Amino acid sequence: MSESNELSRRRFVGSTVTAGAVGLSAPLVVSASALGRGGAPGANDKIHVGLIGCGGMGRGNLRNCAKHDDVVVTALCDVQQARLDATVKQYEGKPKPYRDYRELLAAKDVDAVIIASPPHWHCLQAIEACEAGKDLYLQKPMTLTLGESLAVVNAVKKHDRISQIGTQIHAGENYRRVVEYVRSGNLGHVSIVRTFNVMNQGTTGVGKDPGTPVPDGVDWEMWIGPGPMRPYNRILIAGSYNHCSFMDYSGGWLPGMAPHIIDLPIWALELDYPTCISCSGGRFVIDDDGDAPDVQEVLWQYPRMTMTWMGMLANSYGFDLHGDPVPKRRLGIYFHGVHGTMYCNYGMFQIVPEGKQMEGKEPPEKSIPPSPGHEREWLDCLRSRRQPSCSVFYHTKIDVPLVLANLSLRLGRSIRFDPATRKIVGDDEAARLAAPEYRAPWKFPKQYLES
Ligand SMILES: NC(=O)c1ccc[n+]([C@@H]2O[C@H](COP(=O)([O-])OP(=O)(O)OC[C@H]3O[C@@H](n4cnc5c(N)ncnc54)[C@H](O)[C@@H]3O)[C@@H](O)[C@H]2O)c1
Are 434 and 146 in contact (CB under 8 A)? Predict the structure, then answer.
């Protein structure tokens, strides 16, 4: 809990007292921002939620918010008219449609915004949301570069916003049991963690666009935004499964899947930033319109341990000796401790002792309370002004290792990182490339790197 959030919580408590004093007992349908309370809904106020990016994920996040009685969906934004129209219809035409997210962010009847646009937009839209006084539920990957990651953290802090990154598996019961087990000490000192995500897209991958013209109702300029301009591509625009094949607009499948997966060891072992990051890989097999690696291996150095990632898109073998046909994926995490090894994934965990070293060790009691749901936790925090479990302050410890791995791949060398200063060490070129360059007229808000 930062000092600024504690201050904001006190302000919030003060504002509910004010509401009570004027006799507001029935639920209000006036947004907190409209009431001039800096975006903190009072106890009886409805929370007015907007959505930027009406694709499958954004609509899912919005549904998980809208099912609660204290939420009203007031604003929707997309640059594809058909998606926007279809989503407005789902809410009986009540939310106001926007084609430009800046107009949605300026709207007085929006307290908080779900950002589920493609990843190359996340940093800019998140920072502009903070500047507009909106709290945010930001889809993973949080950002694509070190500069973006630090800037988002600084903007959330400066503008005192509540943030939740969309790594919803964090709310699951299995992750809680794994964290309790690893922290029980039964495995002994864990000095190697191995993580992986493998899937088989076949050698033709996500396919090739023969040169489709931009369809009516699609604002391609605004889809591309700060990313490099390229001709319209119906494969790229189809959804996140596809944009994960295009490096400039997603960072590939490492930021595509690893935010969910390395979350678990970073949570269980309370890891700070890594000190050295090495990554190798390439697009070796798949022949489609994409350019992101279909093979990617990462090695992160932490004090007294290492962690690795294996990503593969043309072979779905798992270490449990099974493969899967197209397009199912396998993922997992191994904790290698001196007393035993734990293998786990989203839904299960299994322990293999080292000889007799785990004899007599009892599993830990449940101690981490259940989550009310990832979106519900965020909504509750909008009222309490406490940061949720996956705020940007927590998630940057997941985001930075990923963006630095992609930088290491790009440069073909290891990156050294100082967790105390949050700076790249001894590599001027890497430090320069860590801040992104946006396509004009978009500008990376680098002033947030100075705060
Ligand atoms: N948490 C998870 O498990 C999970 C799963 C899938 C996707 N995601 C993430 O959610 C995000 C969205 O994924 P998706 O599959 O819905 O992708 P999508 O491409 O289907 O949806 C993104 C939407 O954003 C719109 N968009 C693009 N530029 C915009 C702009 N400037 N303003 C407003 N809208 C804009 C697109 O037109 C599109 O409709 C991605 O970041 C993805 O990584 C998370």
Answer: yes
pLDDT in tens, the chain (451 residues): 333 333 233 222 223 222 222 222 222 333 445 444 455 676 678 999 999 999 999 999 999 999 999 999 999 999 999 999 999 999 998 999 999 999 999 999 999 999 999 999 999 999 999 999 999 999 999 999 999 999 999 999 999 999 999 999 999 999 999 999 999 999 999 999 999 999 999 999 999 999 999 999 999 999 999 999 999 999 999 999 999 999 999 999 999 999 999 999 999 999 999 999 999 999 999 999 999 999 999 999 999 999 999 999 999 887 766 777 666 789 999 999 999 999 999 999 999 999 999 999 999 999 999 999 999 999 999 999 999 999 999 999 999 999 999 999 999 999 999 999 999 999 999 999 999 999 999 999 999 998 5
Q: How far does the centroid of ligand 1 lie from the alpha carbon of residue 118, in Å?
A: 4
12 alpha carbon – ligand 1 mean position (Å): 32
395 lines ligand 1 (CB under 6 A): no
State the Cα–Cα distance between residues 50 and 104, nearest whole angstrom. 8
How close is the Cα of 116 to the center of ligand 1, in Å?
A: 4
Distance from Cα 259 to the centre of ligand 1, integer Å: 16
Query: Is the Cβ–Cβ distance between 354 and 341 less than 8 Å?
Result: yes
Cβ of 56 below 6 Å from ligand 1: yes
Residue 159: closest CA among 288, 4, 363, 375: 4
Q: Is the CB of 118 under 6 A from ligand 1?
A: yes
